[in-house]
Amino acid sequence: MHTFDYHRPATLKDAVALLKKTENARPLAGGQSLTPALKMRLAQTPALVDLGALEELRTIKLEAAVLTIGAGVRHSEVAESKDVKIGLPVLAKLAAHIGDRQVRNMGTLGGSLANNDPAADYPAAVLALSATIHTNRRSIPADKFFTGLYETALKPGEIITSVEFPLPKRAAYVKFKQPASRFALVGVFVSEGGGQVRVAVTGAANSVFRLKDMEKKLGEKFAPEAIAKVKVSADKLNSDLHAAADYRAHLISVLAQRAVGEALGGK
To answer: How high does pLDDT run on average in the chain?
Structure first.
């Protein structure tokens, strides 16, 4: 591990100032991705700004049609929150199956989104639910947030503060997990609400993406059979030691139909 300075600010204002003060300084959320990368020297930074003490990032608020979750809320807290279980139970279920107990007790919503691992679960939820990512500078719609492999619309020194989820009429998330890491080999999140249907896929490509063809069919008829014959192209999907691209394409179709079934109350 390369040497670096370590800071643990007490306020968001101080955190932003520290990131601005040192060029290439990195914010540290739960550390479940950044810490191993630093240990293996796959990443380096002159300074770490630990966001763990920022209580202002640890809130969960349920209103009439919106659930707002602070960026510093841990996966286990999302999974156990009464407000999340009432307003958006699919998100509580998703969070309960992220990684292992240690990862869930340390990893955060904001850290996961900022890292944008191509096989992470939260990006699929954020994109399918048309959530809004709030930072210390602006608000970013989900459709404009995820830009590529481990890349997002965040600028240097920009910190995610909260995520605003519109409550859907119905939604479900189904993933085929890689057994060792519990990351999604393929995960499909289906949501209906606000006059639209959205289908987001994680684990299959370099970044989370939507399936517009399936969305159109489900908008006409929200049922598993409506998308049974929708062809999923393998052209831009990942092919690795875990699964070939054509297998991932097949999984997307199968899991999407299962997710629709779950959203309809099949399970």
So the answer is: 95
Query: Would the pLDDT of 117 be above 70?
Result: yes
Nearest Cα residue to 121 out of 146, 103, 94: 94
Q: Strand 66-70 to strand 160-166: parallel, antiparallel, or no bridges (unpaired)?
A: antiparallel
* This prediction's pTM: 0.95
User: What are the tokens at 262?
Assistant: 């779950």
Cα(69)–Cα(72) distance, integer angstroms: 8
Model pLDDT for residues 160-201, shown as the tens digit of each residue: 999 999 999 999 999 999 988 889 999 999 999 999 999 999
Name the fold adopted by 170-263.
Enolase-like; domain 1 (3.30.390)
SS3 string, 7-28, reads ECCCCHHHHHHHHHHCCCCEEE
Rg of the chain in Å (alpha carbons): 18
Q: Where in the chain is the domain with CATH 3.30.465.10?
A: 5-35+58-166
Q: Which CATH architecture has domain 5-35+58-166?
A: 2-Layer Sandwich (3.30)
